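User: Okay, second chain of the day. Same drill as before: sequence in, structure tokens out.
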Amino acid sequence: RTAISPSEDPEDDIKAVKIFEYVKGAKITGKAKSGKEVTLSAEIETNQGRKFIYKKSAEITKDGNFEFVVPYSTFGEEGRLPGQTQFAVFAQPYKLKIGNKEIEINVSEEDILEGKQIKVSG
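Assistant: Same drill. Structure tokens below.
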């Protein structure tokens, strides 16, 4: 069993993996110069009030393209779609870092559920 626990009480375990629901995920795509590091991160808060950093990195293709698929919307309670989603995880805007440049990206619940593409320029 893999868990991270802030206390000795097994009831306080924070599981290493959490599954809420299957979603297509929004695709964040863009172009960058080869050789630059591209990372994406967001602070996430669970329904238990626990916070963690969601972070991914991507390789830039020979054509200069990159892509991230993200599972969390950034609009909180007001972003819920009645009858379609029952999420209990809230994300701050994603921070896309290309080299020294940082871009904030908001992603809607509709983007997540329908697998929509969000193009950014870097």
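The chain has one domain: 24-121.

User: Thanks, on to the next one.
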